[in-house]
């Protein structure tokens, strides 16, 4: 890392300008392909099936769910990985080896240890040896079938139907199938991948297929690649932002910043960093509005959010575990929330006055969103209180 220079100060206004341009949110910056969109924001949140489609289409010149489907299920140019912060993301195939080595592999190891512990404590006759045997049986069955749901695989591998009692003694205790956890583990290991959902594109009902092994990369090299990509997309940002986004330790975060020779700068909130060679101002975009989905990568890109989000609005926009709901943006700031009602109408509530120009731009974005959604109805997996109010 290089030392900060007194004149190297980046304003909040400049940060917001970078978001509009680099996150492809201003209309003139929108991309032609899903892969361009994904690389622009490093990774698309994929915990909620709808988020990937909504985030991608908000940034595409011609928004089409079919383009996302093609990238996932035909070209295999997008890869789902359990990685940063133990969260499901979609990344491009070119970046996937670095993300797996720098963030996903360690999580997969912890997921395996947790599953073994739960199987020993909450199921009968399970240990590492039996788990390994059942995994081999599942992969063999998939090789024959080509693709199959967990339920279908349980016909070939009956052990998948066994259950574990989770949270015993708690009001929310429940039985969980071994199959659901084991397939999740195989996916975390990069040995299986999700296939096209059996229902609509925003469905959680999907089959599995064997996955090609990802190339092995050294961990430190991989972390540097992730940090560099992230800082070029989200910088300037703080050390705390990168640590939070990746889920790394302070030591790993600082080492990665040093390895990429991140340049220290001053932000309104204190010390920050930009990628080497990225100190100069960027040109302002045209005025822009955006309706971004819950868990969108821009809304969830930083730990320190005061420069684009009024802290007083946090309780309205986030659920109880830190997941942000659908947000309304105007020129680099979150100014409201939106949702889709049961009849398909896109509605929003503003926290700030955006003027006539802003309202017109939002109406245009709502019409654009409704146009490509068509008859599809979005159900947010982590609804906020404000979302529920807007659906009434």
Automatic annotation (TrEMBL):
InterPro entries: AlkZ-like
Protein name: AlkZ family DNA glycosylase
């Amino acid at each position: 890392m290089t030392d900060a220079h007194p004149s190297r100060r980046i304003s909040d206004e400049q940060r917001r300008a970078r978001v509009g341009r680099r996150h492809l949110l201003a209309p003139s910056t929108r991309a032609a392909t899903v892969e361009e969109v994904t690389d622009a924001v490093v990774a698309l949140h994929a915990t909620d099936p709808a988020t990937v489609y909504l985030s991608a289409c908000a940034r595409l010149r011609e928004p089409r769910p079919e383009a996302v489907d093609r990238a996932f299920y035909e070209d295999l140019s997008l890869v789902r990985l359990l990685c940063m912060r133990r969260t499901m993301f979609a990344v491009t195939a070119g970046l996937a080896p670095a993300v797996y080595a720098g963030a996903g592999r360690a999580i997969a190891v912890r997921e395996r240890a947790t599953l073994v512990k739960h199987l020993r404590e909450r199921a009968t006759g399970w240990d590492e040896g039996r788990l390994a045997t059942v995994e081999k049986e599942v992969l063999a069955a998939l090789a024959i079938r080509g693709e199959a749901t967990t339920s279908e695989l349980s016909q070939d591998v009956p052990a998948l139907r066994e259950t574990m009692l989770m949270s015993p003694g708690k009001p929310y205790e429940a039985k969980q199938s071994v199959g659901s956890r084991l397939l999740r583990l195989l996916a975390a290991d990069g040995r299986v991948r999700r296939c096209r959902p059996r229902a609509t594109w925003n469905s959680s009902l999907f089959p599995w297929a064997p996955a090609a092994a990802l190339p092995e990369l050294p961990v430190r090299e991989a972390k540097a690649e992730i940090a560099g990509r992230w800082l070029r997309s989200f910088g300037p940002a703080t050390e705390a932002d990168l640590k939070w986004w990746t889920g790394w330790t302070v030591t790993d975060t600082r080492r990665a910043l040093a390895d990429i020779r991140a340049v220290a700068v001053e932000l309104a909130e204190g010390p920050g960093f930009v990628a080497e060679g990225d100190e100069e101002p960027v040109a302002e975009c045209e005025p822009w509005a955006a309706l971004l989905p819950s868990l969108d990568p821009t809304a969830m890109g930083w730990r320190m959010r005061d420069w684009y989000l009024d802290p007083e609005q946090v309780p309205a926009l986030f659920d109880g575990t830190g997941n942000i709901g659908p947000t309304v943006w105007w020129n680099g700031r979150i100014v409201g929330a939106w949702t889709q009602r049961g009849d398909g109408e896109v509605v929003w509530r503003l926290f700030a006055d955006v003027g006539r120009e802003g309202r017109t731009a939002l109406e245009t974005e709502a019409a654009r969103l409704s146009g490509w959604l068509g008859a599809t109805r979005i159900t947010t997996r982590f609804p906020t209180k404000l979302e529920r109010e807007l659906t009434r």
